[in-house]
């Protein structure tokens, strides 16, 4: 099984693309900082509607309720309950990007 160049995926995929795939609607925005409910199904952030914070410029997210944080690839992996490897492949396919395979180690 070939490897996947995660650095290239992280460089290709923007946080906004992942948020759009997840149907995330920010409740408020302050520049490049967006706030809303956590899009992760098992978070249970319904009562804390602004507990999810994402900086679209840096491509980082943090949920104050469930404590999860990371980059767009890690968010997609958590939301789809896949390994980072499978999430990277899935995300590239959904966005119509070429999968950056590593053929040699």
Describe the fold and architecture:
With 105 residues, the chain is of the alpha+beta class. It is built from 4 helices and 7 strands; from the N terminus they run βααβββββααβ. The strands form 2 sheets. It has a 5-stranded antiparallel sheet with strand order 2-3-4-5-6, with helices on one face. The protein has a two-stranded antiparallel ribbon with strand order 1-7. α2 runs parallel beside α3 and α3 packs across α4. The N and C termini lie close together (12 Å).
Q: What would the keywords be for this entry?
A:
single chain; DNA Primase, Chain A; two-stranded antiparallel sheet; 4 helices; 20% strand; elongated
Layout of strands and helices, then pairs:
Elements: E1 3-4, H1 6-12, H2 15-22, E2 28-30, E3 33-36, E4 52-55, E5 60-63, E6 69-70, H3 72-80, H4 84-95, E7 101-102
Antiparallel strand pairs: 1-7, 2-3, 3-4, 4-5, 5-6
Helix pairs in contact: 2-3, 3-4
Short note summarizing the structure:
With 105 residues, the protein is an alpha+beta fold.
What is the H level of CATH, i.e. the homologous superfamily? Zinc finger, CHC2-typedomain
Strand content: 15-25%
Terminal CA distance reads 12 Å
Mean of residue pLDDT? 92
Unreliable parts: none
- Overall CATH class: Alpha Beta
Proportion of helical residues:
25-40%
